[in-house]
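Researcher: Please predict.
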Amino acid sequence: MGEIRGAGKQPVLPTTAEPSRSHAQETTGKTEQDFAASQPLSSEGKAAKASESQISGEAMRQVLRESLLSASTSASTETIGGSYPVADKEVEVKPWTAEKTTWQPTSPAGVPYKKEARVPDNTPIFDSGKIDREKVLQSLSQHDQNSKTTEDKDRCGGTAVIASAISNGGEKGLLKLTGAMKKNLPADLLKDLNEIEKKIQDKTATHGDLGKLSELIHKGFAVEDPKGGKGILDGDMHSLYTAAGLEPPRGTGLPEKIFQNGQSWPVNLDTDGDGTPNHWVVAGKDEKGRTFIYDPESTPGKPQIHYGGSPEYDKYIDQMKKSHSGFAPLTKEDADRAREKYYGEGLPLDMEVE
């Protein structure tokens, strides 16, 4: 939670629920009931040790933002057809506030959200030398057990791009992501990133390492809200994805209609139906062609990923249809417009996009 900020979302489906907005915008072999959910792991005490490892704030955000924005400029978008404008100018964009971090305690999957790790940090993500993508995504959440990572509650955006990288390319997908983050990183952060990358290359990376990677992304790309909390802008999610080699769908619609195998894109999910999205999830197709919704927030008792044909998948789609949920911008131009609209509302000057 806490990652939805700015304008630029594009409705997952055309809807008449809000006529003033622009309309631009399979089943796994195991049933969800068969999934053996891990016991919730307490994250108490993390905040108390926050001062032990604070990745540099404003300087890091500026450097990583510039790095990934630069990378996204050169990313291939020539194959993206059509035009997908952001919300019409006359539509009021509700500012993201601290109040929006209070959200529905029950996920669309029908179980309570819990701010807890799903598996121990030392759980390997490699099995017999390769990443079992489905297995990892079943238990990958935005929470870890590390007392030195302190922004878990807001890390849905960072965890979403990690999930998409894994779904798209496994080990190679993760290395594309870490490679995109390297340009111009400060020495202290580059050291942290290199350590994570080396573990991925050596096939020794764990869920705890993915938690550290998510923290690096969030520390670097999230912006402060004047009223408290942090979030990743819609436009910046586009930059994160394209810099990591993840391409958007050609248009909007139901996942089964718009995605190719291995392709996914972040969705602004409105969890409480009040008209303002407040949580990043991922929609897409896995390498086998199965449609899915991945939710970074912990849902003990259910997997983090839900495949097409399951009741849980249908509930997420229904929530997107009836609310103001939508994809992050599909083109760089729309991402830039979304950022401009957001920064035009008086956010910190030191984070302006040139």
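Model: The chain has a mean pLDDT of 74.
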